[in-house]
Amino acid sequence: MTDISLSPHGAAAAKAQSNSIFRHARYVVAENPVTGAAFGLFILIALCALIGPYVVPYDPLASDTSATLASPSFKHWFGTDQLGRDIFSRVIVATRLDFTIAISSVMLVFAMGGFAGIAAGFFGGWTDRIVGRISDTIMAFPLFVLAMGIVAALGNTVTNIVLATAIVNFPLYVRVARAEANVRRDAGFVQAARLSGNGDFRILLMHILPNIMPIMMVQISLTMGYAILNAAGLSFIGLGVRPPTPEWGIMVAEGAGNIISGEWWIALFPGAALMIAVFCFNLLGDGLRDLVDPQRRT
Amino acid sequence: MAKKKPTKTEELLRNSDKSLPLLDVQDLTVEFVTRRGIVRAVQHINISVAKGESLAIVGESGSGKSVTSYAVMRILDRAGRITDGTVMFSGIDLRAMPENEIRDLRGREMSMIFQSPRLALNPIRKIGRQIEDVLHQHAQVDSGLVSEKAIEMLEHVRIARPRERYHAYPFELSGGMCQRVVIALALACKPQLLIADEPTTGLDVTTQKAVMDLTVDLTRERGMSMILITHDLGLAAAYCDRIVVMEKGHVVETAQAERIFKAPSHRYTRKLMRATPRPGVTLRDLLPEEEAKSARPIGHTDRHAAKPLLVVEKLVKEYPRNDARGTLTKLFGPRPAVEPENFRAVDGISFTVDRGESVGLVGESGCGKSTTSMMVMRLIDKTAGTIMFDGEDIGEIPARKFATLPLRKRIQMVFQDPTDSLNPRFTAARAIADPILRLGNGERAFVRERCEELARQVGLPVELLDRFPHQLSGGQKARVGIARAIALKPDLIVLDEPTAALDVSVQAVVLNLLQDLKDSLGMSYLFVSHDLNVVRLLCDRVIVMQTGQIVEQGPTDQVLVAPQAAYTRDLLTAIPHPPL
Fold this sequence. Notes:
Distance between the termini of chain A: 27 Å
Strand order of the largest sheet of chain B: 6-7-8-3-9-10
Distance between the termini of chain B: 52 Å
Number of domains of chain A: 1
CATH architecture of the domain at 353-381 and 392-574 in chain B: 3-Layer(aba) Sandwich
Helix content of chain A: over 70%
CATH topology of the domain at 353-381 and 392-574 in chain B: Rossmann fold
Structural class of chain A: mainly alpha
CATH architecture of chain A: Orthogonal Bundle
Order of helices and strands of chain A: HHHHHHHHHH
Mean pLDDT of chain A: 82
CATH class of the domain at 353-381 and 392-574 in chain B: Alpha Beta
Strand content of chain B: 15-25%
Largest interface: A-B, 28 and 42 residues
Number of helices of chain B: 23
Shape of chain A: globular
Largest sheet of chain B: 6 strands, mixed
Radius of gyration of chain B: 26 Å
Structural class of chain B: alpha/beta
Largest sheet of chain A: none
Mean pLDDT of chain B: 83
CATH superfamily of the domain at 353-381 and 392-574 in chain B: P-loop containing nucleotide triphosphate hydrolases
Helix content of chain B: 25-40%
Number of strands of chain A: 0
Oligomer: heterodimer
Low-confidence stretches of chain B: none
Low-confidence stretches of chain A: 1-13
């Protein structure tokens, strides 16, 4: 239905619109340089995930017995591990896996939790009670232990890590979506939509959802960081991705034992990558909200 | 005595020249730094207030009247600053005064009443305590006597049973009562200047009258000066000695209250006065002179004596009382022998609306007029009674189902708040198109054409159709709302205070537009309003409601000129009467 063009000069209008979005983005970045830095980091991380495996200097899985536990040098920027694998290459290649896990789990939980939350906030009554009790039940567990339990029970696969991370984040999405939908339930524009002949379901999707997207964007960005941490944490304790796959959590785990013997670089660089990624997503949340919120766009 | 040693400013105030005006604003300019550059909200204005004088600053939204008062109190927000001019208070330069000294002055020498009394009070603190806070702050009385003093203040603002109300929380009081508490707060330290920023917006007319009478009495009694900031020229003229008219950051006219109505000198003042609804004028008289001449005469739709379009009979809406005791008994207590008493928002009302007729539904907040309109709109379900629309009993159809029925097309609504009623994520065109896409038949391909046609009909420039609501002005948003309501050519439109959030000059235009649309499309209006002057202009018949019941109904002229019910008379006398 939205494919019916309401704009007579489609192309021109679209161009003007993209122009204004660009100008707006520049304004947001200028007003808050930290957001600019976060956007820059995000682009860097995304690039690593997309083209990283093709540009790294070494095969992340190839071991070189002549150069085990080499400290950072011009040849191996981040040094090598016990098997002589190049840590720089492994850190870059791991980005894709960690990124994929984080994005797919966040998309999954956005679809489940977002929809359940909007429905709970909009309809109230029994829908609200059922959704509320489900998320209360999840909240009753220590979240990381719950994720461990899910992966342990369902099996040690990437799919199950995604699922576990999604379930753990479910209550956060439900709460935000529920509260936002609830305050808009009796808003004038919802009443007006009803008068225009929109059914409940359509009001939910076409009128309420777009309006709570800004706040959901922030939530997505914040939980992205948490999802990366969660995936790495599961791998760290041996659940989830298995060696020798390059993954930040495993790499930190592998290097942890070497720190006391002085080989700090094995754990430090994947750990730093993890930290930067989480940091970047947390900062991005605020920037995204400024960008997508139409109230602030003039 | 625990009284503080007089501060430097107090000494200055005592020694100041008594012949000076209390407040003297010269050449004041206030600028705001925004993302689109620097905006001059107030430009080179001169205002002075003598001791004991009451001055009104009148203007429409964006005229800079509130900014002026904030600049005087030095409470501009971060983006705003005074760039030019002087503000002298009893001979002291307020602009040069350091922040900690002016803080001492605020509340003690000059204080302010804000627009929304509920927002100005701390919701979780007893009102008596809040008055004590102000007294403590400025060390006005001994701590032993402070609660007595607070009760005395409540008594002064004529709050009944002040000793009990001392312990009340703001949410336990009505809007008018809250405003009285705010006045008590403002006057607690006996300031010399009171600034009232739209003190009665959002209050009912009878409450407005009570609050304004009280404020004027108290300030007069204490020899205080007052600045009343308002958009209502009638209110200003009725309560103030002198009036300053502001437009777009400039003072365009300053005159005595009685003079301004008899001989307004500036073009803008004349336009404002024309646009203010008052007895003895027609809708066309509200428009600026040149437009009024070109406007079509108001048509007289002859109402057929045939079947009325809408017949409402013995309509009732009840809400369960949700207090703590009720919930507890429901959970633990024995089943009550009789049904728990419900709150009747609408209590058995009956009325009709003919084809092509506009009927006004008038009453103060809480009288049930909005509930009635929501039931007629089929947005909420009734408890009892019938709603017959064109021979069909639509009251029997559940509100949830009604949204998708073809009948939905024939009853539409214009909402009170044009901002709230437009989806912030939809462009104007998309908002207008929504009902056509959902309920229109065979028009989907021509949606854009139809939107443009509707925009022209309501006088909205077609190029604005691709804008989002926040890019439109209040009047433009109101037009979008009206275009959306008439998009399906309905038979009945419920207008829920469609002009309450608009400036008077915009209101004049919108009211005329509504009248024209009714004439050309032959619709019926159910016009819900608290403003009798507006109802007088637009409606053929008036229904007056009080506490869920109809106290009077009849032709407009008859009800408003020779009211039968005492309540209607109260409403009529509460409207501010400017000295004409």
